[in-house]
Write a structure and sequence with these properties.
- The chain has two helices and seven strands; from the N terminus they run αβββββαββ.
- It is mainly beta.
- It has a domain of 72 residues.
- It has a five-stranded mixed β-sheet, covered by helices on one side. Strands 4-5 form a two-stranded antiparallel sheet.
- The longest helix has 8 residues.
- The protein is elongated, with a radius of gyration of 26 Å.
- The model has no long low-confidence stretch (mean pLDDT 83).
Length: 105
Amino acid sequence: MVNLEDYESEFIPKHRKKSKKKSKKSDHKHLYEPCLVHWLIQDSSHIMKGERCSVCGKIGDVNFFETEPVEGKPRLCKLLGGKEILEKYPDLDIYDYETGEQIEK
């Protein structure tokens, strides 16, 4: 005959609490500078204006949509494409979103 206490200790697993994963924190205050971000999405290349930390290279905020007002129509704005963003910000460096490496213009 099987003892119930032995059966419970051998075959029934004990409940374990899930451990919380600690988020990785940086050891510095991020100093973000404006830059252009290159992002490859489903074989389509996109250029956007964003921010990059000058200390560690982390990409911060990215403006997915860049607009400017349409001449003669005060309430309308047009969406800028990659070439127009490059023309608007010629002095900003371009960085890859995935790797953070600088890309040649």
